[in-house]
Amino acid sequence: MALNRPHILAALGAPVIDFTQSCGALFLFTIEAFRCIFARHMLRRVAWQVYVIGAKSFWLILLIGLFTGMVLGLQGYYALVKFGADGFLGAAVALSLIRELGPVLTAIMITGRAGSSITAEIGVMRISDQIDALDVMDINSMSYLVSPRLVASLIVFPMLTAIFDIIGIIGGYLTGTVLLGLNQGVYIARVHSSVEMLDVRGGFIKAIVFGVLVSMACCYMGYFVHQRRDSAGPEAVSNATTAAVVLSCVLILMFDYVLTSFLL
Amino acid sequence: MNSLQPNTDNPPAPWNIELDGLCLGYGDTVVLEEVSDILPAGEISVILGGSGCGKSTLLRHILGLNRPFKGRIRLGGKDLFALSPKEFRKVRRRMGVLFQDGALLGSLTLAQNVGLPLFEHTNLPQRLIDEVVDYNLSLVGLEKFRDYFPNELSGGMRKRAGLARAMVMNPPLLLCDEPTSGLDPINSAQMDHLLLNLKRNFSYMTIVVVSHDLSSMQKIADHVLLLNRGRVAFAGSKADVWKSEDAYVKDFLERKEPLETHTHTLSAEASRALQRWIDP
Ligand SMILES: Nc1ncnc2c1ncn2[C@@H]1O[C@H](COP(=O)(O)OP(=O)(O)OP(=O)(O)O)[C@@H](O)[C@H]1O
Ligand SMILES: [Mg+2]
Question: Is B255 in a helix, a strand, or coil?
Answer without folding.
Answer: coil
